[in-house]
Amino acid sequence: xxxKYTKIxxxxxxxxxxxSMARLVGVNVDRVISMTFIIGSALAAIGGVLxxxxxxxxxxxxxxxxxxxxxxxxxxxxxxxxxxxVLGGLVLGLTESFAAGYISSDYEDVFxxxxxxxxxxxxxxxxxxxxxxxxx
Length: 136
Description:
7 helices; flat
């Protein structure tokens, strides 16, 4: 919703599409890039606090599995597609939940990464990703 309906979201999309044209129409590109990093860092900090409170301890390795699963969700949905990343996260979560509920909770990570391998074999660009043409 932030990216689609707010003024800073419109500026982010304009900067992402064409940085020099965004400057020409009056977008402060440096400010937009700074705001993007601030928002991303704040969301990462909130996620870190939530993961640490769920696990109950703080060490250097508590975010590794969450980071790998976030990457898996982004690849499942299609790199560069925000709705695809959301859909990939939903599919990944449902796959893990059903695998843990019906088969065994010991193998939920195996099913998550098995789904990733299956999607990469069948549709390498992800669920909502677009295939790119390669120039030779």
